[in-house]
Amino acid sequence: RRGWRGTFMSDVTDFSDLGLREELLAVLADLGYEAPTPIQQESIPQMLTGSDLLGQAATGTGKTAAFALPLLNRLPQQDRGKLPTALVLVPTRELCIQVSSAIHRYGRAFDARTLPIYGGQPIGRQISTLKRGTDIVIGTPGRVLDHLNRRTLDLGSVATVVLDEADEMLDMGFAEDLDS
Ligand code: AMP
Q1: Exposed, middle or buried by CB within 10 Å (0-12, 13-18, 19+), for 49?
Q2: 34 CA from centroid of ligand 1 (Å)
Q3: Mutate which of 2, 12, 37 to test ligand 1's pocket (most atoms within 8 Å of Cβ)?
Q4: Contact 39, 63 (CB under 8 A)
Q5: Cβ 23 vs Cβ 110: under 8 Å
Q6: Per-residue pLDDT of the chain (180 residues; tens, 9 = 90+)
Q7: Which of 92, 53, 58 is nearest to 71 (CA)?
Q8: What are the helix (H) ranges across the chain?
Q9: Which secondary-structure segment (H or E) carries 154?
Q10: Which end of the chain has fewer CB atoms at under 10 Å, N or C?
Q11: Would you say 69 and 20 are in contact if contact means Cβ atoms under 8 Å apart?
Q12: How far is residue 116's CA from residue 84's CA, in Å, rounded to a whole number?
C-alpha cells in the first residue's frame, strides 16, 4: 500500500489504531485521509493520554491535524460550547485563520465550536462571539492577552494548550506575552 506522499506504508498504522473516536475517523475517511503521517502517528496516542509533548516536523507534514485531532477527541462530550476547554496560540493572523478552519473542518465530527481571535479584527465582535460560547479558542498571543486583561476571555476550563510554531512565536518576540 502506498500512503503519505508516496512512501511505502505496509507497516504503517491506520488512523483507527491511534485511539481516535469513531466520529473523527468518519470525518478523516470523508476527507480522503488514508493513513496518519509520521508526526500524527507519534503525537496522537501520546496526546490522547493527556501527557505533555513537544513535536517537531517540517511544514506540510500534517502537524495541524497532529494536535487538532487529539484535542478534539478530548473535548467533553456533554455540556460544552460555553467556556473553552482548549486554547491554541499561533504567531500570525494568517496561521490563526488557517488553523481555525482546519480544526473547524475536523471538528464537525462533534459540532465543535471554534473561535479565531487575532489582532486587527474588531474586538467588539470578538467579545460578543466569546459571550455566545465556544469550545476551542485559536488566537494570537497579543489579542488573547488583551481579552484576558479585559476579562472577556475565561480560561478557567481550559484543559489543553497548544503552542503552534512555538519557535516562531519566540522569534517574533512573544516570549513575555506567552509567559503572561
Ligand atoms: P499541515 O502540515 O498541518 O499544514 O498539513 C498539510 C496538508 O496535509 C493539509 O492540507 C492537510 O489537510 C493535509 N493532511 C494532513 N494530514 C493528512 C493525512 N494523514 N493524509 C492526507 N492529508 C493530510
Answers
A1: exposed
A2: 11
A3: 37
A4: yes
A5: yes
A6: 455 555 555 456 899 999 999 999 999 999 999 999 999 999 999 999 999 999 999 989 999 999 999 999 999 988 898 999 999 999 999 999 999 999 999 999 999 999 999 999 999 999 999 999 999 999 999 999 999 999 999 999 999 999 999 999 999 999 999 999
A7: 53
A8: 22-31, 38-48, 63-73, 93-107, 123-132, 141-150, 166-171, 175-179
A9: none
A10: N
A11: yes
A12: 12
Residue nearest to atom 11 of ligand 1 (CA): 62
Place of cell 496561521: 95
Q: Which amino acid is located at 176 in the chain? A: E
Residue with cell 491506520: 14
- Contact criterion met (CB below 8 Å) for 90 and 140: yes
User: Grid coordinates in use for 17?
Assistant: 489504531
Question: Which residues is 114 bridged to in the sheet?
Answer: 136
Cell (9 digits) for 52: 505533555
List CB contacts of 129: < 8 A, sequence separation 6 or more.
115
Amino acid residing at 74: R
Ligand 1, CB cutoff 6 Å, lining residues:
4, 33, 36-37, 40, 60-65
- What's the gap in Å between 105 CA and the centre of ligand 1? 12
Ligand 1 centroid, distance to 61 Cα (angstroms):
6
